[in-house]
C-alpha cells in the first residue's frame, strides 16, 4: 500500500513572514481530513534557526485529532528537541535529518556527521522506551552541490549504520533536487533488496514538470512511501539559496492513481486543502 506523507512543516519553514499560529493549525486540521498516512506538522528545533516553527507546541494544542486517522510527525535536530517532543503523546514519529554531506550536516544541525550519528543512537534508544518511531532522513541522499563525497555505496554504508541501530524507517532525501530518474530507481531497488525489513521513503524536491517521472522512478525501484507538499511549496532553507520546491502532492496523487494505485483519499477535503494552501502561502 502506498503511503503519502504531507509536509506542511517543510512547506512553511522557510517562509520569511511568520504564519499566525491559528492559521497554521487551521491548515493542518484541514489536511488531517484528507486521509494522508502521516502529516509532518512541525518541528522542535531552535527558534533562532527556524523561527517559523517556534509555535509547534501551540499548534499541536489546537489540532483536532479525534476524527483523523493520520499520524503526526515532528522534526527534531538534537536530543533536547526529542525530549521536548516526548512530552506530547499525540506525536507518533520523530524525524531526524542525517546528511551524507559533512557540509550540509553542519549547516542543517550545526554538528558533524559523527556527532549526528551519536544523536541518532541516543534518540533511537529514547524512542524505543517512549513508544515513538524514529524516521531518519538521509539528506543529500542523491548527491550534493558542495563537492563532498557521494556514491550509492556511501548511501549503503549509512543505511547499514542505521540498521545496526534498529531504525525501521529511512527516507532518502534529494534535498536540492539533483536526482535523476535512473539513480532514483536504482538506489531504491538496491536498498530495498538489501534491507527488506526497513521501510524506505522518498523525500524528493523537484521542479513541477519532473514530479511525475520521479514518482514513477521511485515506484519502479519499489518505493511505497512518498513525501510531498500541496502546490509544491517549500524547500530546505539551510540547503541552498536557489530553493527547489517540494514534490507537489496533487501531482503525485494524479501520477500514483494513473499507475493504478488506490490512495483512499477524501477528494472533497483535498480540494478544500488546496484552496486553503493558496491562502496560507500566497496571502
UniProtKB/TrEMBL annotation:
The keyword Lyase is annotated on this UniProt entry: yes
Family indicated by similarity: Belongs to the HMG-CoA lyase family.
PROSITE patterns referenced in this protein's UniProt entry, alphabetically: PYR_CT (PS50991)
Keyword line: Lyase, Metal-binding
A Pfam family reported for this protein in Swiss-Prot or TrEMBL: HMGL-like
Keyword Lyase: yes
Listed name of the protein: Hydroxymethylglutaryl-CoA lyase
Transmembrane annotation, as ranges: none
Native source organism of the sequence: Algoriphagus ornithinivorans
Gene3D superfamilies linked to this entry: Aldolase class I (3.20.20.70)
CDD domains assigned to the protein according to its UniProt record, in alphabetical order: DRE_TIM_HMGL
Residue span(s) of domain Pyruvate carboxyltransferase: 1-271
MF-aspect GO terms: hydroxymethylglutaryl-CoA lyase activity; metal ion binding
One example of a Gene Ontology biological process annotation: ketone body biosynthetic process
Amino acid at each position: 500500500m502506498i503511503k503519502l506523507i504531507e509536509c506542511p512543516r517543510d512547506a512553511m519553514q522557510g517562509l520569511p513572514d511568520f504564519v499566525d499560529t491559528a492559521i497554521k493549525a487551521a491548515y493542518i486540521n484541514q489536511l488531517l481530513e484528507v486521509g494522508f498516512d502521516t502529516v509532518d506538522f512541525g518541528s522542535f528545533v531552535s527558534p533562532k534557526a527556524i523561527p517559523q516553527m517556534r509555535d509547534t507546541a501551540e499548534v499541536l494544542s489546537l489540532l483536532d485529532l479525534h476524527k483523523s486517522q493520520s499520524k503526526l510527525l515532528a522534526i527534531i535536530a538534537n536530543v533536547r528537541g526529542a525530549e521536548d517532543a516526548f512530552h506530547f503523546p499525540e506525536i507518533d514519529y520523530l524525524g531526524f535529518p542525517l546528511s551524507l554531506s559533512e557540509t550540509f550536516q553542519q549547516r542543517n544541525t550545526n554538528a558533524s556527521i559523527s556527532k549526528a550519528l551519536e544523536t541518532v543512537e541516543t534518540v533511537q534508544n529514547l524512542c524505543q522506551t517512549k513508544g515513538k518511531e524514529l524516521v531518519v532522513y538521509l539528506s543529500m541522499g542523491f548527491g550534493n552541490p558542495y563537492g563532498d563525497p557521494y556514491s550509492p555505496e556511501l548511501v549503503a554504508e549509512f543505511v547499514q549504520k542505521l540498521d545496526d541501530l534498529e531504525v525501521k524507517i529511512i527516507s532518502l532525501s534529494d534535498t536540492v533536487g539533483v536526482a535523476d530518474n535512473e539513480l532514483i530507481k536504482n538506489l531504491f531497488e538496491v536498498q530495498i533488496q538489501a534491507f527488506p525489513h526497513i521501510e524506505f521513503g522518498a523525500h524528493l524536491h523537484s521542479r513541477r514538470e519532473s514530479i511525475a517521472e520521479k514518482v514513477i522512478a521511485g515506484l519502479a525501484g519499489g518505493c511505497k512511501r512518498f513525501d510531498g507538499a500541496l502546490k509544491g511549496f517549500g524547500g530546505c532553507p539551510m540547503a541552498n539559496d536557489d530553493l527547489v520546491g517540494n514534490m507537489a502532492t496533487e501531482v503525485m496523487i494524479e501520477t500514483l492513481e494513473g499507475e493504478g494505485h488506490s490512495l483512499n483519499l477524501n477528494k472533497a477535503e483535498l480540494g478544500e486543502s488546496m484552496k486553503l494552501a493558496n491562502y496560507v502561502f500566497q496571502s
